[in-house]
Amino acid sequence: MATAYTHASSNKRKTWFWLIVFVLFVVSVGYIFSLALNMPWILPVAIAIAIFQSGISYWSSDKIVLSISRAKEIDKKTNQGLYRLVENLSISSGLPMPKIYVISDSAPNAFATGRDPKHAVICVTTGLIEKLDKQELEGVLAHEFSHIGNYDIRLQTIIVILVGLIALMADWFIYLRFFGGDDDNGNWVFVLIGLVLALLSPLAASLIQLSISRKREYLADADGALLTRNPDGLARALEDISKDTEPLEVANKATAHLYITNPLKDQKDSKKSRFSGLFDTHPPIEERVKALRDMAV
Asked: Which domain holds residue 24?
């Protein structure tokens, strides 16, 4: 039987594999665009712009998400039971005590944000507190602690930079090729390859981004199970959350990837094909539950 340790190690290796592939992909696309247009400045300038834009988002994203979600900070007096659970997990994990926020919404869900463990936030809905038992709630909180401990917000920022690089370079290639006013620039072989990449590379970048996102969810599940020593608690929580048909009103496509399960409840999810699953930010609940129930801690 696979253990939580082997699940965690496997997903870490897969994340690093896809991240290396992503970096090599971005560099290769930039190199081809540079050769096609005979403009070697494209890749370094795109890197500078993407880092600048993502840097602003990195330092302020937690405040933006909490504001969009209409979340309110709580303390020990506001909700002693929730505070105690988070405090105990903070001690067990060795991570600093995060700020705790609550969204007043009956749809059960949760997310973590913050640029590092010292500036972390765990946010839950009132529906999660009311509809889950103590072990299930602890499993969800442990999952979010794992995202914090694994620096997933920082990783997501790096990935956003890479996706932004691809989008910038593809847009520049199309503009400079057709509107730049110099049709003699570059090698036509690379121009043709560049045209294909300009059309397909943004889609490929998004698919790699989503694949990494799904791997981090599996990793947070495994590490959460290690933290509580109770994978069944998280498995039952995922089942209960997925069975709840109420969408989270404050969620949107820009923030959906942060939550423990997709908050934009799509009643057609069960009919999705294997191909359509490539565009999901989260792995199928059934697979996550099976992985949790099959692992030993």
From this structure: 4-294
pTM over 0.90: no
Nearest CA to 22 among 163, 193, 197?
163
Q: Which CA distances in Å does 229 have to 3, 18, 211, 293?
A: 11, 29, 27, 12
What CA–CA distance (Å, rounded) separates 55 from 98? 22
Query: Each residue of 164-208: pLDDT tens digit?
Result: 889 999 999 998 888 765 555 557 888 899 999 999 999 999 999
Contact between 75 and 115 under an 8 Å Cβ cutoff? The reply is no
Q: What are phi and psi of 110, to 5 degrees?
A: -160, 155
Question: What six digits make up the tokens of 164?
Answer: 């932004």
- Catalytic residue numbers read 144
DSSP one-letter code for 278: G
Cβ within 8 Å of residue 87, ≥6 positions away: 97
CB-hemisphere CA count at 13 Å for 66? Answer: 20
> Mean pLDDT across the stretch 59-65?
82
Structural domain total, the chain: 1
Distance, in Å, from the CA atom of 191 to the CA atom of 194, rounded to the nearest integer, reads 5
Range with lowest mean pLDDT among 4-8, 82-86, 105-109, 200-204: 4-8
The per-residue pLDDT for range 209-228, each reduced to its tens digit, is: 999 999 999 999 999 999 99
